[in-house]
Amino acid sequence: MRLVTGITLLLALGVLGDSKTTQPNSMEGTEEEPVHLPCNHSTISGPEYVYWYRQIPHQGPEHLIHGLNNNMTNRMASLSIAKDRKSSILVLPQVTVKDIAVYYCVLRGTHWDRQGCTCASADAYYALPPKGPSVAQTVTQPQPEVSVQEAGTVTLDCTYSTSDSDYYLFWYKQPPSGEMVFIIRQYAYERQNATNDRYSVNFQKEAKAFNLRISDSQLEDAVMYFCAYSGAQ
């Protein structure tokens, strides 16, 4: 016997990429019912794919589905792309409380510049479970693209806004295969900047800046980079 039915879930939507996509801030859905998440990408060009990701609180972005001009379906979701490719809809077949997350619509081309790093701007909106109000945080990457010579050093900028004092910041990279790869994490109360092999960060809590530094750049570094925020609670 089910003791609780008809729970309304709040799903948040964010934007990753170079501001080519627009989404509503949030969508509501009923437990075990399908939810349709829209995305507008009216400036899409021929070789660009539509990617959808989700980020569950305290975790990194997770690839859900992608497509070029056909409807796609997998075990997690369905993607319906309009004939003119200027909009798409992500369908989550039966949502549960586990689906409360941030959902991102991303445009990604088939060409990857092997002389530099392609970076993405991000405006991320995070939703709490239905028993409490939603809280919005914003993460911004101002550089649409950065180039660096092989073996050189490059810095990728990231700023954020939050009223919280206890939180985590992350950097991820996305190779052409599509998965999100964790790079580095910084806790808000750590005094020392985090380092991980060739990666290090310049974390300035007062200025709300979290910049990634990549030293000894290699050809494999020519991928997309994402800055992310997660509350500590």
Name given to the CATH homologous superfamily of the largest domain = Immunoglobulins
Query: Gyration radius, to the nearest Å?
Result: 18 Å
Structural domain tally: 2
What is the CATH architecture assignment of the largest domain? Sandwich
Question: Quick one: biggest sheet?
Answer: 6 strands, mixed
Low-confidence stretches: 1-19, 111-136
Count of DSSP-assigned helices = 0
Order of helices and strands: EEEEEEEEEEEEEEEEEEEEEEE
pLDDT average, as an integer? 75
Task: Please give the CATH class of the largest domain.
Answer: Mainly Beta
CATH topology of the largest domain: Immunoglobulin-like
Q: Would you tell me the structural class of the helices and strands?
A: mainly beta
Organism: Rangifer tarandus platyrhynchus
Keywords: Cell membrane, Disulfide bond, Glycoprotein, Immunity, Membrane, Signal
Domain Ig-like: 18-105, 133-233
Signal peptide: 1-17
